[in-house]
Write a structure and sequence with these properties.
With 447 residues, the protein is mostly helical. Helix content is 67%, strand content 5%.
C-alpha cells in the first residue's frame, strides 16, 4: 500500500492532478453545508428524516445523490442530476434525430455544440425542478401539514425566488467544478462529484446501523449476526459489481494474411471485447424515474388500490424489472452498432472465423450482443431490487440497504475503477508497475 502511494507521489504530473481533484471535491463538500436563504432548515431536515413509504424512498434516493445537501436544503440541493438527465436525453436524441447525429459526427466542433445544448437544457431542468420544489414546500407550509419550511419574515415570492435562483446557480457551479476536474484533475469530474456525494452518506448509515444493534439479542432491531450478514452482503455485492463492470465477452477475430514477396503478413488472432454491462447504470435510472411517476399517479387515481403499485409490492417489483430489461436492450441497441463494426472489420482486413464478412458478421455480433444484454439486464435487475428486499426482510433503513446495491453501488464501483485505471496509465507511462486491475499483474517497460 505504502509502496503504491510512494510511486504515485513520485510522478509530479499525477501528484498535481490528484491534488487539484482533491481540492475541488472539498469545495463541493463545503458547498453542501451552505443553506439556501429563506429556508427553515430544521423543519426540512426533520421532514426528510421522518418521511415514510414511497415519498421516503424517493427523498432518501435523491438525498443520497446530493450527499445530504437536499435534506439540509443547501445550495447544492439539486446536485448534479439535472446535468446527468440532460446528458442522457441528448445522448438518446443524438442516436434518434438525424440533425443531431450529423452535428455529433462533425468532430470536436460538433461535440462542443452538443455540450452547449446540454448546458442550456440543464438550466431549464434546474428551473423546472427548483420551481416544483419551491411550490411544494410553500404549499405544505401554508396547508399546515408540517412545520413551516419558510423562515420567519420571508414572503412567499421571496422564498420562491431564493430557492429557484440558489439551487439553479448551485447546480451550474457543480457542472463547472466537474469541467475543471476534467481539464486539470484526473477522472471524470461529474462522476467523481456523484461518487463523493454517495460516499459521504456512509458514516451516517454506519451510525444508524450501529445504533440499532443489540448485542444481547434482547429485542433490539438488529443482532450481531444480522450485522455480519449485512457486511457479507456488502462485500459480495461489491465484488459482483466489480466483476460485471470489468466483464467482457471476447469475440475471436482473425486478420487476413497478405503475402508480399517472400514474407507473409497478418494472420494474427485477436479478440473483439464486448462489455457485458453495455448500458451501465442508465436502465436503473430510467426505470426508477418511470416507476416513481407510476407510483405517484396510482396513489392519486386508484386510491386504496394504489397499494398494488407502491414501492416494495409484487407488481411494482415486476414492472420495475421489466423496465430495466427493456431499457437495457434499448440503450444497448443505441450504443452498439453491429453494421458499423462489421464494416470496420471488413475494411481492416479482419474477419470472425467461420463467419462471412459483411451482413453475416453484423448478424452474428447482433446475436451475441442480445444474449449479453439479457445477462447484463438480469444482473442490473438483481442489483436494483436488492436494497428493497434487504430493507423489507431485515428491517433496516433504506439509507443502509441502499449502500448494498442499486444505482449508488454501481456508480461508486464504476467511478473508482475508472480513476484507478487512469492512475495506472500514468504509472505505466513512467515505467512503474501498475495495480493489475485488468487481470493479472501489469508491468511497465522495465518489468
Amino acid at each position: 500500500m505504502f509502496d503504491i502511494l510512494a510511486r504515485i507521489l513520485n510522478v509530479r504530473e499525477l501528484r498535481v492532478k490528484l491534488g487539484i481533484t482533491f481540492l475541488l471535491l472539498i469545495v463541493f463538500r463545503l458547498g453542501s453545508f451552505i443553506p439556501t436563504p429563506g429556508v427553515n432548515v430544521k423543519s426540512i431536515t426533520d421532514y426528510v428524516a421522518s418521511a415514510q413509504g414511497a415519498v421516503g424512498a424517493v427523498l432518501s434516493m435523491a438525498d443520497m445523490f446530493t450527499g445530504g445537501a437536499l435534506s439540509s436544503m443547501a445550495i447544492f440541493g439539486l446536485g448534479i442530476m439535472p446535468y446527468i438527465t440532460a446528458s442522457i436525453i441528448f445522448q438518446l436524441l443524438t442516436a434518434i434525430v438525424p440533425a443531431l447525429s450529423r452535428i455529433a459526427h462533425e468532430g470536436p466542433t460538433g461535440r462542443k455544440k452538443i455540450a452547449q445544448y446540454v448546458r442550456v437544457a440543464t438550466v431549464f431542468l434546474c428551473l423546472i425542478q427548483a420551481s416544483m420544489l419551491a411550490y411544494g414546500l410553500s404549499s405544505a407550509s401554508v396547508a399546515g401539514e408540517v412545520g413551516s419550511f419558510v423562515a420567519e419574515g420571508v414572503g412567499t415570492w421571496e422564498f420562491f425566488i431564493y430557492i429557484v435562483l440558489s439551487l439553479t446557480v448551485g447546480t451550474m457551479f457543480l457542472m463547472w467544478l466537474g469541467e475543471q476536474i476534467d481539464e486539470f484533475g484526473i477522472g471524470n469530474g461529474i462522476s467523481l462529484i456523484i461518487m463523493v456525494g454517495i460516499l459521504s452518506r456512509i458514516p451516517r448509515a454506519i451510525a444508524r446501523l450501529m445504533s440499532g444493534v443489540d448485542p444481547a439479542n434482547s429485542g433490539g432491531s438488529l443482532s450481531l449476526g444480522e450485522v455480519v450478514v449485512l457486511l457479507l452482503l456488502f462485500v459480495g455485492m461489491t465484488l459482483a459489481v466489480v466483476l460485471i463492470t470489468l466483464g467482457t465477452r471476447r469475440v475471436p477475430v482473425m486478420q487476413a494474411k497478405a503475402v508480399r514477396g517472400r514474407k507473409t503478413y497478418g494472420g494474427q488472432r485477436q479478440f473483439l471485447p464486448l462489455k457485458v454491462n453495455q448500458a451501465n447504470v442508465i436502465p436503473i435510472i430510467f426505470g426508477q424515474a418511470i416507476m416513481q411517476v407510476v407510483a405517484g399517479g396510482a396513489s392519486m387515481i386508484l386510491g386504496p388500490w394504489a397499494v398494488f403499485m407502491s414501492p416494495g409490492s409484487f407488481w411494482y417489483t415486476v414492472f420495475y424489472i421489466v423496465l430495466i430489461l427493456f431499457f437495457c436492450y434499448f440503450y444497448t441497441a443505441i450504443q452498439f452498432n453491429p453494421n458499423e463494426i462489421a464494416d470496420n472489420l471488413k475494411q481492416g482486413g479482419m474477419y470472425i472465423p467461420g463467419i462471412r464478412p459483411g451482413k453475416r458478421t453484423a448478424d452474428h455480433l447482433s446475436g451475441i450482443m442480445s444474449r449479453i444484454a439479457l445477462a447484463g439486464g438480469a444482473f442490473l435487475a438483481i442489483i436494483a431490487v436488492a436494497p428493497q428486499f434487504i430493507s423489507q426482510y431485515m428491517g433496516v433503513d433504506y439509507d443502509i440497504s441502499g449502500l448494498l446495491g442499486g444505482t449508488g453501488l454501481l456508480i461508486v464501483v464504476g467511478v473508482a475503477l475508472d480513476v484507478v485505471q487512469k492512475v495506472e496509465s500514468y504509472l505505466l507511462m513512467r515505467n512503474y508497475e501498475g495495480f493489475g486491475i485488468a487481470g493479472g499483474r501489469i508491468k511497465g517497460r522495465r518489468g
